[in-house]
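Re: adenosine-5'-diphosphate structure - here you go.
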Amino acid sequence: SSYLKLLEENRMLYNQVRDLKGNIRVYCRVRPFLQHSDRRSVVEHIGENGNVIIMDPSKQGKDSRKNFSFNRAFGANATQSEIYADTQPLIRSVLDGYNVCIFAYGQTGSGKTYTMSGPDIKSESTMGVNYRALDDLFHISQSRQGIISYQLSVQMIEIYNEQVRDLLVADGSDRRYPLDIRNYSQLNGLNIPDASLVAVTCTQDVLELMKVGQRNRAVGATALNDRSSRSHSVLTIHIQGKESASGAKLKGCLHLVDLAGSERVDKSEATGDRLKEAQYINRSLSALGDVISALAQKSSHVPYRNSKLTQVLQDALGGQAKTLMFVHVNPEANAFGETISTLKFAERVASIELGAAQVNK
Ligand code: ADP
């Protein structure tokens, strides 16, 4: 049995190394059915190799099936800790000086918040990626005490209708809205928005800041319908390290990005603010897709400047930076159209990188 254990450990190590090879990863997560929802699933198959087969409920036979391929695919039974186990190597790499972006993509109601935050802050077993990542950052940095000393600081911003807003201002203050992101300040060579930067020493510090951020996010929202699903929020943890023996410095950052809902709004129905919001969201999500696919194709021009989102994240997209996108799928038949467009977006972002990895084998 110790031989089996060794095999198992080797397999896990191999998986981690394989995972870290590419700089852009896309994981698909299909959420379970909710209590009262329509129970015909459009997801026919979820493979361990990242294959996902979707069935068009309006068609018959072979024509009804569409095949998608990702780095990993998780079904309704996947636990929060299983999802995080595959994310952890990336979090570790932030403390080695990498820049990492983790995105939650999908239509409203597909499980983005569930993956990133979890359904209940108080329950450890269902905690989302954000909390697990923070815990790991602090644990690992503490375990390296005496070898490397780390300083961690946090920013939290929101991008709504192509305007950047600092979420870590004193409660309710709109003073810093909208931020001029041409006024980038410099943090040890990194471009960052000119937003509040708060030093933190433990997970609890960050949780307190996240509460402030959530309250501020709600402030502008009174006149707007569910603002949080119509804006992108970016929680950034900046890391500066100093090696005790050599004095060598390193820096890295982790962006945890909860994207606006990707659903298309029917142009014939939406008007006014709603239509404007939808257009801004569409534009910024396609700008993000363009940047990631340009990077995956190793294109000489990467169009960072086409959206505020890609400008803010520029230092963490491309180069040595690592990107992970969780793509969320609602399995309900009535979401079929959105599911297909979500998966097409995700595949555009993922496929070229997967192709390159296959050539290298
Ligand atoms: P989004 O952030 O994309 O709008 P939510 O995360 O709020 O979506 O998810 C919508 C609903 O589905 C919530 O009630 C949430 O608790 C539930 N849900 C989403 N993903 C899961 C999951 N993996 N397991 C159990 N419930 C989930």
